[in-house]
Design a protein that fits this description.
The protein is an alpha/beta fold. It has one domain: Glycosidases (TIM Barrel). Helices cover about 40% and strands about 15% of the residues. The protein is built from 17 helices and 12 strands. It has an 8-stranded parallel beta barrel, surrounded by 5 helices. Helix 14 links the parallel strand 8 and strand 9. Helix 9 packs parallel to helix 11, helix 13 runs parallel beside helix 14 and helix 14 runs parallel beside helix 16. The structure holds ligand G3I. The site of ligand G3I has 15 residues, from helix 15.
């Protein structure tokens, strides 16, 4: 039994009690038809989560949302905000802290949307994952197409890290500092990634050092997709992190994005893989989970595939809960309608845990039940909780 399950949680009530009631409209928390009013707040993901475990969502905005047929969800949709506040204890800006958003022109920073998310999280007793500082994608044109010397680029990156991390010092729990720096064969992206191309691999340690200078409290992570199983890419991170730790670089965590497709398999080595990073003394996290499948004209996959999807969510969450310092599990959005998947993989979707009118899918209940089993009272509590007996 891990320390997590041994410590069984009594703190979920404390977490919700800390919610700002003014910031939490009482909508969409539970289905009043099945949940007695007094228990509605308990019928959420965050209520059921173990005390020191964060269940999170990406905050929809920017990226593919800018060309969608709905207004930006986070600033404009009160119901969406209420569900984010009620269901999740961790938030990740989906796009709003990326370079193209916060640093649109040389020397010009725009923190409006990112500030709103951090303020909202604080008002609702949530932690924030910062995303991201060092990536090959969503960089502004002025940077990618600028004619900078290596010395100038180094100064630009240092200023960005100090400015962005420093702005939120003490308010961001975990930073996904370096994102997707290896390809699937385990080679550093020395062509795609401007920093690796122009400044060489030693810049990786510098970025972590600069982030640590700007916020000594924040836990600093690597983050990538296709690293859930033990494979060439995960092995490359394992070797790099060992090397950086030996040099005294402040690396604190490894995040598995966990963007899965039902046409592929679920890698049963996920727990063992999380464990080997944990054994290095790191925290680990599931940072962006979704599970896509082939969909019909209605945007849904078959019920059979939805059950399989639910099982994969349960398996990934269980793997994380079983590893002592896997402390955070984030889904890459709350609603299917907001997901990046159909935009990038036409014909695929239905990848998240709620649809349409915040209707909960089997995947939602798989997460809620798995959290409840690990939370205070475990299975005995489940037996007495009307909402959780579904
Ligand atoms: O930059 C182009 C622009 O030139 C073009 O005119 C426009 C037309 O559609 O597209 C713009 O690119 C968009 C990009 O965001 C930049 O804002 C893409 O279409 C759009 O698909 C993209 O979406 C974001 C994507 O990251 C970018 O890689 C998604 O909203 C966001 O959910 C997604 O999130 C990433 C994580 O950050 C890292 N891990 C993978 C995850 C899913 O891809």
């Amino acid at each position: 039994m891990t320390t997590r399950t041994a410590l069984l949680r009594t703190g979920a009530a404390t977490a919700l009690a800390a919610l700002s009631l003014t910031a939490l409209p009482q909508a969409a928390v539970a289905d009043p038809g099945t949940t007695p009013p007094g228990l509605a707040k308990q019928d959420t993901l965050r209520w059921n989560a173990p005390k020191d475990f964060h269940i999170g969502s990406a905050v929809a905005g920017g990226g593919h949302h800018t060309t969608a047929d709905y207004p930006e969800p986070f600033p404009s949709d009160p119901r969406y905000r209420s569900v984010l506040a009620a269901e999740f204890s961790s938030l990740t800006p989906e796009n709003q802290m990326k370079w193209e958003f916060v640093h649109p022109e040389p020397g010009v920073y725009d923190f409006g949307p990112a500030d709103d998310i951090v303020d909202f999280a604080e008002a609702n007793g949530q932690v924030v994952r910062g995303h991201t500082l060092f990536w090959h994608s969503q960089n502004p044109d002025w940077l990618e197409n600028g004619d900078y010397t290596p010395e100038e680029l180094r100064a630009i990156l240092k200023d960005h890290v100090h400015t962005v991390v420093g702005r939120y010092a003490g308010r961001i729990q975990q930073w996904e500092v370096a994102n997707e720096i290896f390809d699937d064969s385990g080679q550093l992206r020395t062509q795609d990634n401007i920093w690796l191309r122009e400044l060489g691999p030693s810049i990786i340690g510098d970025v972590f050092r600069w982030a640590h200078e700007a916020d000594p409290e924040a836990k600093l992570f690597f983050n990538d997709y296709n690293v859930e199983g033990t494979n060439a890419k995960a092995d490359a991170y394992y070797a790099l992190i060992q090397d950086l730790l030996a040099q005294g670089v402040p690396v604190h965590g490894f995040g598995m994005q966990t963007h899965l497709g039902l046409q592929y398999g679920f890698d049963g080595r996920m727990q063992a893989n999380l464990q080997r990073f944990d054994d290095l003394g790191l925290e680990t996290a599931v940072t962006e989970m979704d599970v896509r499948g082939p969909v019909g004209a209605d945007g849904r996959m078959s019920e059979e595939l939805r059950q399989k999807q639910a099982e994969w969510f349960r398996s990934a969450l269980s793997a994380c809960l079983a590893v002592e310092d896997c402390n955070s599990f984030t889904v890459w959005g709350a609603l299917d309608e907001h997901s990046w998947v159909p935009n990038t993989f036409p014909g695929y979707g239905d990848a998240l845990t709620m649809e349409g009118d915040y209707e909960r899918k089997p995947a939602y209940y798989a997460l809620q039940r798995t959290l409840a089993e690990a939370g205070p009272g475990g299975a005995a509590r489940l037996a007495h909780h009307p909402a959780l007996r579904r």
